[in-house]
Amino acid sequence: MAPELFEEGGVHSFSSDLWALGCVMYECYTGRPPFVSTSFTELVNMILHNPVPPLLGNASKDFKDLVSQLLIKDPAERLQWSELRDHPYWRMKIKGLLLPAQPAYANFLKHSIKSYMSDSVLLEMPNGPQNQKYAQLDHTYTQVEQPAKGRSEIIAKNITSSSENTAVMENIARKMKVQTTSGPLSVNGSVSSKVAVNILRLSKVVKTNLQRDAESEFYRQPAASCTYENDPDVKMESNDQELDFAESREVETNQDKDEEAGDAPADNKLNAFGEAKGLDSFRETPAQTNANEIQDDVFEHVSSAESNGNGFAKHTEEGPFHPIAAATPPKSVAVPRKGQHIVPLCTEKKHMAPPISNVNKDPGKAASISLSEAFWHQSDLAVRPIVNRRVEKVHETIFDTRVLHVDALSASEFVGLASEKLEMFISRLASGLQGSTPHNEKLNTLKYVESLCTDMDSANLLINGPLITPMLIKMLRTTKTADLRMQLIIVIGLLIRHATLIAEELATSGIVTVLTEALRDKQEKVRRCAMAALGELLFYIATQSEDCHKAGSHEVPQVKDGRISSAWQIPSTCFALVGSILRKGEDNVTQHYALKTIENVSSQGMEWAGRFTSHEILGNLCYIYKTSAKQENLKIMAGSCLVRLLRFGFSSIPIVFEKLPVKELVADLCRGNSKLHAININLIYIALAGSSVMHNNISKYLVPAFEDKAVVPSIIGMLEQGPEVLRGKALICVALLCKISCRWLHSFCHAKLLSVLERLGKDKDIFVQQCVVAFNQAIVGLVPEILENVSSDFQQQASVKRPSPVIVHGSFFGRSQNRTSVPLLSILLVLLKSPSFREQIVDEQSLNQIAGFLQRLEVAGFEVQDDFQSNLLRILEVLSQQTSTLLRHLNKFIFPILPSLAVLYKKIKDCDLRCLCLKIFCDIFFVTFENMTDANLEAPFEVANGSKIEGTRSRKAHIECIVKQYLLPLYPVLVDDEDPIPIYAQRLLLMLLDVECIKVEDILKLKLASRFFEFLQEDFSCISLHNVQLCLFLVSSSDVDTKVLADLQVIGRFMDLLEFVYVKGMQDYIEPVLSTCRFFLIRNSNNCADSGQTLLVDDFECGKQTRVFLELCNGDGQTIAHIAAECLLMLLKVAPNAATEHFIRNLQLLTKLLDKSVNVQHANTTVIRLQKHLLDALCLGCKQYRVANVKVLITFVPSLSDIIALQNVVLKLKKSSFTQVAEASIDAALELQLLAGLTCS
């Protein structure tokens, strides 16, 4: 927004548009606007006073110059259109255009110059051509047209000037160049601090307008109670937020903005109520907030003409420019309009949707809300003024004060009269309407009354007065002159529109009959005005209740099902005539008023909507909505009327959809604008909701629409890209479709509905959140039905040898579905994968049904489809991976799901499904034992089979029973199955051993020990860590006899495996393989001691593992190093010849190891034990070398230098503070001396 627009009297202009262009170019380059703030006050100050941040980066010189020239704060100094076209930044020459005049902008510049330029400066200006033009421009603004035919009418001409004059004003402003510091422009082109900008007032205006938009105020409806912050500043959520600075705006909605009557006759000067054309139709819209002030400045002699009694006067104080918010009367009104009456489509008891604020944001904890409560948005029953200033071209109300029978009081003066003077004033005013009064004087008096009617307080006084209203109705009944009839209706309509309290006496005056008869008038303009006035009256009557008849009552009327007050009797002919206006050939503007009438009145409830549900009215509405010849705003209103009428009267649904095919509504979801989309989605919802009440009558209309394959993509597209309200409504329609037939849920789930739903769940819009909650609850409610249908169809297939297809009912596809419900199980799988549904779907009942499917599969005597088995197992897989769900229903998973899975494994032919079955088994066990405490595992678990109690035991005991009964006997089959089933089997068995759910003796009883070592006979590249760990369990167990392991002859292969995993760097395998070797060596040592037999062959292959053990002692892991040193010592004992030779060959490596341990600063127990084992191995190796050397069993001679180096390290260890290490060092040093002597000899 340009800086000058914040000034008093600031107007939009081409210069402000060029400022906006500069802002856009700046943001395109930098990615952000030139001025950014979340505070409105701070943002305005930045625009007014802060310099524009420089453009950084590699922007060209021409681009920087162009942007800087466009963002000059002084509009007179800012780059102009001609300069913009000729700027060197553009590569191509821009064609020149003749721009229209900017009179308001020129006037703004003129006043700026007058305000900030001294008289002396003006007098010193040369009398050049520019000065003459300036004088000519000033004269143009004050020129007055003399009245014709002898009347001294003083009417200021519209502000007109040429673009040349505007340029003159800009040149004058530029020449000023801030010759005074108090001027509005500073040297750097920024607005000075003394510019008349009331930021606080602007902030309050913006905040008020934002609050009004947020509250979505309805026409003649009390605003919802909202609490706003006391801070007058406005906090803006984004850089793109639009702000409204209009201080006296009409309450407009998006629909009003589209209600342009392009087809209105060119000679139309008045709208239906004769109201003046809104100022927003001019180019300089921001100036309307100060319209009266500008008029006072420009037309200086108008007020003096009025004071001199020069006849005609333009009513500006209380006339059409007076702000009237008819949609929301002030609280001072005696009787407020009653709240809207909302009736659900179906037979639900709750009439009103719950407050949105009460809807829990967490779908899992939200209160229950029906689809009909969630679907209807507050805008669906919004009511707006029937007469819209955008519909007709109008002019200002003008009356002749000379021929009035009263003084031309303003509305405020009229209201302020004392009661006696007021009665006298009204009496004299009525005398000007008597039969003997000339025709023109009657018109003049009515136009003056019209000027009073636009004020709410004066309208209340006039419409309830004893003279005016009865007289107007009587005149309308008897007058035949078209212009007088039209003016009478205009005044009556304005009174009804702006009055907030109408006494019941008016009901007996025949006003309804008179206005109804006026609809038959031959004059188009009379019918138009009559339709608008009657519409206002019908809506007023519709908003009143039987409890509010007394004038002046301050009680808020109670809603009573939309029943008409007994005082107001509306004949059926009235509604029929309103409907007849919709016939083809009627004036578009009149049809606009008729549609607005039906729209507003039908929003008040079932009884009022029912008055417009005749075949003729519904047919005309359908014609207007679907014909392409009508304006779009008429189509939108016709569609809105249809939605409201069908919402409150679903018995009319067949009539409408006979003429308005649902198939076309569905197809139009991809065409048109969002308002047509909203109407289409509303009508589709009504059709779907009506099908649940009127099956036979509605289904035939839905069949063609939903057989189209484009239905699902169209709705998904709306969910992804539509506005918030339409996305919520589309989601509710999807839920309703799924409730009608679960197969729709299958189709939408495969169209990525759930991913869209996840994004909608994060939407901040409250209505969308409410729809997501209702959708989730509706879909969760379908799960029991889906499972029940699947169970029924599955049972039916099992009861016959060759099952026949199951016919699915409850669908509107038009023909019976020759398919079973069994495939619908995949829907449950998709829902369980979604976090939005998982916790809500899984309960005791659903688990019982899933377990029942498994049990039936155990005994199924027919061929079960792989899809059914796969979906069932994948459902269990999802459940088993959810820790909270599994633990909450642990007993159900332990029994009967686990036993059924074991039995089902044998029957499944597909390898992938068998693998999935075993994986579920593993997941259940892992989650159970990793998260359950010992107390929970030992808790009593009651196992029931039907009505018979089989036993009571702990959970762990029951798991042990299942494992021994079902899993262990199946293990040979598992390890022989295809990969990766053996891996899962080993992993599961290892976990059961680890938690002591089974024991090694259980494995031995089934003679499974040899199966664990079979992998050693194959290539080591396919080894399994779980298999190695199982071998470790067996070798380390005292329950396994050493003779059994000796018969397997696998210790040598384990030594080879240790070398393989070490060379390949398989760190995860080293410790379990090394530990297994250790236990093998321990068993070998014990066996040698007991029986003198060894499990190892003392050969070269066995001895070469000596270096592997030494290398492992040199590793970073202290535990592995300690185990390796222990294994080295035991290997020297059990294989003295081969191990000793390899040990002596690696003295250098031993020296390195000992030296490394000496240099450890803080030796712990592990390091000390490592040093002790290595020194003991050195002593033993040296001794055995001497013995072997004597027997000539070892021919290798170690190097003397290696021995000396090792001696030096051992001497360091002799100084160890640990006794065991020091003593072992003394023995090792002695053995090294002997070895050195042997080497020298």
Explain how this protein is built:
It is a single chain. This protein has 1241 residues and is an all-alpha fold. The chain is built from 60 helices and six strands. Helix 29 crosses helix 30 (695-706), helix 46 packs parallel to helix 49 (1025-1036) and helix 55 packs parallel to helix 58. The longest helix is centred in the middle third of the chain and has 34 residues, at 766-799.
Q: What coarse outline follows from CA principal-axis ratios?
A: elongated
- Uncertain spans, ≥5 residues at pLDDT below 50? 116-165, 172-195, 215-230, 248-270, 275-364, 546-565, 801-818, 944-950
Could you tell me the radius of gyration in angstroms?
47 Å
Bin the helical content.
55-70%
Would you tell me the structural class of the helices and strands? mainly alpha
- Average pLDDT for all residues: 76
State the distance separating the first and last CA atoms. 106 Å
Count of beta strands: 6
In DSSP terms (H or I, runs of 4 or more residues), the helix count works out at: 60
Largest sheet: 2 strands, antiparallel
Order of adjacent strands in the largest pleated sheet? 1-2
The share of residues in extended strands comes to under 5%
